[in-house]
Design goal:
Order of helices and strands: EEEEEEEEEEEEEEH
Structural class: mainly beta
Largest sheet: 6 strands, antiparallel
Helix content: under 10%
Radius of gyration: 17 Å
Number of domains: 1
Shape: globular
């Protein structure tokens, strides 16, 4: 199947309200819809995406740009240990290899991501095709830090970089962010696809997940 690459140039006039860079987008057949479920009852996966990819995305001058989702643990305040970060990415595009990217956790206060809490950690996933990279974090949030953001940094400029992904929902969930030019702003993707495929898994080693808490998490994050 022929891959269609779409280059969208964002003008400098719009840069104050949007990402001042050029997106390079690969529209390709969707990969695995869902990652494996957590094996332990004490682990909960938080997500905003549908599980189906619309595009893989890189940025021409994207080195140093962060792409994150925010999450809220107020309904499960004991689950403050972040065990894994899951990001949908690929080694096959744009240059057929892993170049590596950094992952991290940020505080979230005042309605926008804040300072770095954990990381940045440079990683190269082991995937051989597009899919969910399941990356170890194993870090406990500070006391009362119930809101945070998690995601990845495009470490190199296109085409020697690894992509992030957006799902197939054109309704923006208002939880995806980008950092560029010294500030955070809501992520605005091409053709209206703006929900980043970034998830976290959180755990409480002392209290198991009850059916009621699982229901609240599903209602909040899916």
């Amino acid at each position: 199947m022929k891959v269609v690459k779409i280059l969208i140039a964002i003008s400098l006039a719009a840069a104050a309200a949007a990402f001042a860079a050029d997106y390079v987008v690969e529209r390709a057949p969707a990969g695995p819809a869902q990652p494996p479920l957590p094996e332990k009852d004490t682990v909960v996966e938080l997500k905003w995406d549908t599980g189906t990819r619309a595009y893989l995305v890189c940025v021409y001058t994207g080195a140093g740009a962060w792409f994150v989702n925010d999450f809220d643990l107020s309904q499960i305040p004991d689950y403050t240990r972040v065990t894994r970060l899951l990001v949908y990415t690929s080694p096959t595009w744009p240059n057929g290899q892993w170049d590596g990217f950094r992952i991290g956790l940020y505080g979230f206060a005042g309605g926008v991501p804040g300072s770095l809490l954990w990381g940045p950690k440079f990683v190269k996933p082991s995937l051989t095709a597009a899919g969910w990279a399941n990356l170890s974090v194993a870090w406990t949030l500070p006391p009362l830090q119930l809101r945070f953001a998690a995601g990845l940094e495009q470490y190199y400029n296109y085409p020697t970089c690894d992509p992030h992904a957006v799902d197939n929902n054109r309704t923006f969930r208002q939880h995806s962010w980008l950092y560029s030019g010294g500030s955070w702003r809501p992520y605005s993707g091409s053709a209206g696809y703006s929900n980043l495929m970034i998830r976290v898994r959180v755990s409480n080693a002392y209290v198991g997940v009850t059916p009621s808490s699982i229901g609240r998490v599903k209602a909040l994050y899916y």
